[in-house]
Design a protein that fits this description.
Number of domains: 2
Structural class: alpha/beta
CATH superfamily of the largest domain: Metal-dependent hydrolases
Helix content: 25-40%
Number of strands: 17
Order of helices and strands: EEEEEEHEHEHEHEHHEHEHHHEHHHEEEE
Number of helices: 13
CATH topology of the largest domain: TIM Barrel
CATH architecture of the largest domain: Alpha-Beta Barrel
Largest sheet: 9 strands, mixed
Bound molecules: zinc ion
Distance between the termini: 33 Å
Length: about 450
């Protein structure tokens, strides 16, 4: 066999196991995974001795060039490529009537998807889109089928914020989502509980970010999850919970998983690697919603990943400038945190180095589970015949995270100053080297919009 590229001599980490061997790439696909003794003839040989060779990270929850995130596809996906992320799922927001809306209030979901695909012309990595439903306009119900046919096979809804939907409308959408066999994606926090608590803290002048977690408590997250899950079960819709931040919400999700395979959920790197003490040390920079929780929650989230109640680790990447984060009172800050560039090394260091979880476990959470959950059949695996999306990772390199190296437009990181062991060495997308030694190596536009399949969720 003659191949284009041979990645030789690394520890190959698949979702199932870790083996010493070689990976052969031909025409942008994985041609073979061989043992160390089998060496096909190759145009280019890449020495991966003492390195890990893993599938590219699939991040199903990122905000790039959206209403709340200032990264363009160029800056956001450069950060991704440097972080070993080879595909992501971004959001296309339907318009809504509010001063902070992304576009005119009458932009349909279909138009929003078209606009995002156009913007994504500059992407360095492959990307899909979740359709985000932001207003209770039944017109959207007639759009879902075409969107699913066009590869937008998941729909996001919020129970909170000015673009949150009523339970009544969520229920209608869920029935339609069930008919199309797409995935319903939920941000759950009880809006009125959070609004009242926020108002109380504002009126008593509790502007220090240490007070922020109490404005969006764990039970508010769990309450809203329970309502949405109950409706999804009735409708027979696939349910995916985003950014699960606490034990309480995880337990609710788990309670609906006992009667079938239609409930899945993620947590994010920051909930697994930071706790609420970060509001003392980093001020308003880690103000995200839901908030960072207690160290006990952090422990329980690892238990829930281990049990399978949670099966994906994402970033919820949001890019804003430090100036819009560092304000007097936490309620004036712009919410969200950027982490596409650092999620893999930070989570690797925490999960594998500090807690002793296996490397295949990390690959399942960051690569194969998100790909399977969202119908990305070519991604998140090293199976022969699939896209050659690969990260070469140095498990022994120790370094300190430094925001001045950000490719994102965000000029800070919540991991600034954190010393980690494990570094992205090279990133390949469809057989092409897209990042090496901390610099990107392809022009913007190499990445493509991916039409996703309807995921089966049978296994
Ligand atoms: Zn998000």
């Amino acid at each position: 066999m003659n191949v284009d590229t041979l990645i030789q001599g690394g520890a190959i980490v698949t979702p199932e196991r870790s083996i010493d061997g070689n990976i052969a790439i031909k025409d942008g696909k994985i041609a073979a995974v061989t043992d160390a003794d089998s060496v096909p003839r190759a145009e280019e040989v890449v020495d991966a001795a003492d390195k890990l060779v893993m599938p590219g990270v699939v991040d199903p929850h990122v905000h790039i060039d959206g209403h709340n995130s200032r990264d363009s596809y160029v800056t956001g996906t450069k950060a991704a490529a440097l972080g070993g992320v080879t595909s992501c799922i971004n959001f296309a927001w339907e318009g809504w009537n509010d001063e902070r809306r992304a576009w005119d209030g009458d932009v349909t979901l279909q138009e929003a998807v078209e606009r995002q695909i156009e913007k994504g012309d500059d992407s360095l990595i492959d990307f899909g889109l979740h359709g985000t439903i932001t207003r209770g306009d039944p017109t959207v119900l007639t759009e879902l089928e075409t969107l699913v046919e066009d590869g937008v096979t998941s729909f996001k809804m919020f129970t909170a914020y000015e673009f949150g939907l009523t339970n009544g409308f969520i229920n209608r959408v869920l029935n339609r989502v069930a008919e199309t066999e797409a995935v319903a994606v939920f941000h759950t926090e009880d809006e009125s509980v959070c609004a009242e608590l926020t108002a109380e803290l504002e009126s008593s002048g509790k502007g220090h970010p240490r007070h922020y977690p109490s404005s969006r408590p764990d039970y508010a997250e769990a309450m809203a999850a329970d309502s949405a899950l109950r409706m999804a079960r009735e409708a027979g819709a696939k349910y995916y919970g985003v950014h699960t931040s606490c034990e309480e919400a995880g337990r609710v999700l788990e309670s609906y998983q006992q009667d079938g395979s239609r409930v899945r959920a993620e947590t994010c790197t920051h909930y697994l690697t930071l706790d609420e003490s970060a509001y003392e040390t980093s001020g308003t920079l880690p103000v995200i919603a839901p908030p960072l929780r207690t160290s006990r929650d952090q422990e329980r989230l690892f238990d829930q990943l281990e049990s399978g109640a949670l099966s994906v680790v994402s970033t919820d990447h949001v890019a804003t400038k430090r100036a819009s984060k560092e304000v007097k009172n936490w309620w004036e800050t712009s919410f969200g945190a950027n982490s596409l560039q650092y999620s893999l090394p930070v989570f690797y260091d925490e999960a594998v180095n500090r807690r002793g979880f296996s490397r295949p476990f990390l690959v399942r959470l960051m690569c194969s589970n998100p790909a399977k959950t969202f119908g990305l059949s070519q991604k998140g695996t090293l199976e022969p015949g699939t896209d050659a999306d690969i990260v070469i990772f140095d498990p022994d390199a120790e370094y300190t995270i430094d925001a001045t190296r950000n490719a994102s437009i965000a000029d800070y990181t919540i991991y600034d100053g954190r010393t980690v062991t494990g570094k992205v060495d090279r990133t390949y997308l469809r057989g092409e080297l897209i990042a090496k030694d901390g610099a990107t190596t392809v022009e913007p536009g190499y990445g493509s919009f991916v039409e996703r399949d309807i995921p089966s969720w049978s296994a």
